[in-house]
């Protein structure tokens, strides 16, 4: 993509409405535009990031045997009357009436709907377990939408649901998601800590929140440092490994939210315990027959007797992650995208458009990036060098490749790694390999 043609409405000044750094940088980098309180359009740069995050989340769900479906955003109220949540949910639920006066709602979550799908066709334990997920917009009329996409009213969530015949099997499903989440967040370049959680309005028996660590996080967490070293191990585990042993080891390590932490009884010595700030990006629940029993989602066990199916639900805040990643990865100059979610792989800066040598060298590299399967953003605009550097730093692409008249004449380019600021000069022929490697 050529920057001269790219729709990138960046801002020079800090927008006054943004209280936290990710919101500020998303607006300044032209990623999003607010349309109403907590409701955003995603502009090309932001949309690319959102799609990248979504794809990592999807690949990890698929890897653990979860099957993708797509349920609608609009749901009939009657389903929620069956579970009793239509009245319980209160003002967070956006209620709608259609032309025939039927009560509808914009889904804040999908337990009822997926239970309905399940009960209409699955009748025997032989068809279990089933793991289903979708990635769909949700609406919750939050009391205080704020912090940009971190607490929106309309937001994109990956929500998965598990169906099992008994508790032991349901625990195996829970463990799959537990490990899948650690692996997902590691792939996104984040440090994620599972913290035992209250089950809240979804109800049930067992629940963990996944908090990613960022200095600006909303909540305080106390963590055993060994929890920060699980990335590689989680990424190497698959659904057929002994996940129970791994999960037991991990949940045996200390991690507590502020309100649960008790310094006196904490098993980690004070000198080792880490006090960090966290942002909730995922939440998993096991809740047994909370929905299947009232909604009549039963399956016949080996003895032929029908019983309510055992369920769990598993959420990841896909749009919140776009903000959370920035909270975890930025500097004074702007965003620093982890490679896995960067909107482009590399920014190519032509310092002197119109100069025949610069144009030819930049155009050639641009083509070579494409040929190598890389996605470049080519700054071909006639702008001051300082403005080009500042904008490239702001939008945070992992690599910058700078072509100037002197380098172009000598057959070299300057390469900068955004995360470290490290700069090196390389022969033009070596540039693509360096970035690919
Ligand atoms: P929170 O405690 O932050 O309000 P929640 O516990 O109500 O979230 P869940 O029902 O567990 O949220 O939803 C699963 C995930 O969806 C959360 O972990 C979070 O990442 C994301 N999420 C929830 N509410 C919002 C929101 N208003 N805006 C953006 N993402 C959200
Ligand atoms: Mg939650």
From TrEMBL:
Q: Which chemical reaction does it catalyze?
A: tRNA(Pro) + L-proline + ATP = L-prolyl-tRNA(Pro) + AMP + diphosphate
An annotated Gene Ontology molecular function: proline-tRNA ligase activity
One Gene Ontology CC term in the entry: cytosol
Q: What EC number(s) is this enzyme filed under?
A: 6.1.1.15
Q: Which InterPro entries match?
A: aa-tRNA-synt_IIb (IPR002314), aa-tRNA-synth_II (IPR006195), aa-tRNA-synth_II/BPL/LPL (IPR045864), Anticodon-bd (IPR004154), Anticodon-bd_dom_sf (IPR036621), Pro-tRNA-ligase_IIa (IPR002316), Pro-tRNA-synth_IIa_bac-type (IPR004500), Pro-tRNA_synthetase (IPR050062)
EC top class named in words:
ligase
- KW Nucleotide-binding (keyword) present: yes
Q: Which UniProt keywords apply?
A: Aminoacyl-tRNA synthetase, ATP-binding, Cytoplasm, Ligase, Nucleotide-binding, Protein biosynthesis
The UniProt record lists the Aminoacyl-transfer RNA synthetases class-II family profile domain at 38-338
Q: Where in the cell is it found?
A: Cytoplasm
Superkingdom of the organism of origin? Bacteria
The record's section on Gene3D superfamilies has: Anticodon-binding domain, Bira Bifunctional Protein, Domain 2
A single GO BP annotation from the record?
Answer: prolyl-tRNA aminoacylation
Q: How does it assemble?
A: Homodimer.
Q: Which family does it belong to?
A: Belongs to the class-II aminoacyl-tRNA synthetase family. ProS type 2 subfamily.
Per the entry, what this protein does is:
Catalyzes the attachment of proline to tRNA(Pro) in a two-step reaction: proline is first activated by ATP to form Pro-AMP and then transferred to the acceptor end of tRNA(Pro).
Protein's name according to its UniProt entry: Proline--tRNA ligase
Please report the organism this UniProt entry assigns to the protein.
Answer: Inquilinus limosus
- Taxonomy of the source species: Bacteria, Pseudomonadati, Pseudomonadota, Alphaproteobacteria, Rhodospirillales
């Amino acid at each position: 993509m050529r920057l001269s043609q790219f729709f990138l409405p960046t801002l020079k000044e800090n927008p006054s409405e943004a209280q936290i750094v990710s919101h500020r940088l998303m607006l300044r980098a032209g990623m999003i535009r607010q349309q109403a309180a907590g409701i955003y359009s995603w502009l090309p740069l932001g949309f690319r990031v959102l799609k990248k995050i979504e794809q990592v989340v999807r690949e990890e769900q698929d890897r653990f045997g979860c099957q993708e479906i797509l349920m609608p955003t609009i749901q009939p109220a009657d389903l929620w009357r069956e579970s009793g949540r239509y009245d319980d949910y209160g003002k967070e639920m956006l209620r709608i009436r259609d032309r025939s006066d039927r009560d509808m709602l914009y889904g804040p979550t999908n337990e009822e709907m997926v239970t309905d799908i399940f009960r209409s066709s699955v009748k025997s334990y032989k068809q279990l377990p089933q793991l289903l997920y979708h990635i769909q917009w949700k609406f919750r009329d939050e009391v205080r939408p704020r912090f940009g996409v971190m607490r929106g009213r309309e937001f994109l969530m990956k929500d998965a649901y598990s169906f099992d015949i008994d508790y032991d099997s349901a625990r195996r499903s829970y463990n799959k998601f537990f490990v899948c989440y650690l692996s997902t967040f590691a792939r996104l370049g984040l440090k994620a800590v599972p913290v035992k959680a209250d089950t809240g309005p979804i109800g049930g028996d067992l629940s963990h929140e996944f908090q990613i660590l960022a200095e600006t996080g909303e909540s305080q967490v106390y963590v055993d440092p060994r929890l920060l070293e699980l990335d590689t191990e989680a990424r190497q585990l698959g659904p057929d490994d002994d996940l129970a042993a791994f999960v037991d080891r991990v949940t045996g390590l200390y991690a507590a939210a502020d309100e649960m932490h008790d310094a006196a009884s904490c098993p980690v010595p004070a000198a080792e315990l880490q006090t960090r700030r966290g942002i909730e990006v995922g939440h998993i629940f096991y809740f047994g027959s909370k929905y299947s029993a009232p909604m009549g989602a039963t399956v016949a066990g080996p003895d032929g007797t029908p019983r309510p199916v055992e369920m769990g639900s598993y959420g990841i805040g896909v749009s919140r992650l776009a903000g959370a990643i920035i909270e975890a990865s930025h500097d004074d100059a702007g965003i620093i995208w982890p490679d896995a979610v960067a909107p482009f792989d590399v920014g190519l800066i032509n310092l002197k458009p119109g100069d025949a040598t610069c144009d030819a060298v930049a155009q050639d590299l641009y083509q070579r990036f494409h040929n190598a399967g890389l996605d470049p953003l080519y700054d071909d605009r006639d702008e001051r060098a300082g403005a080009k550097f500042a904008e490239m730093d702001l939008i945070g692409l992992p690599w910058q490749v700078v072509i100037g008249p002197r380098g172009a004449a000598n057959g070299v380019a300057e390469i900068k790694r955004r995360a470290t600021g490290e700069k090196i000069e390389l022969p033009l022929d070596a540039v693509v390999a360096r970035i690919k490697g």
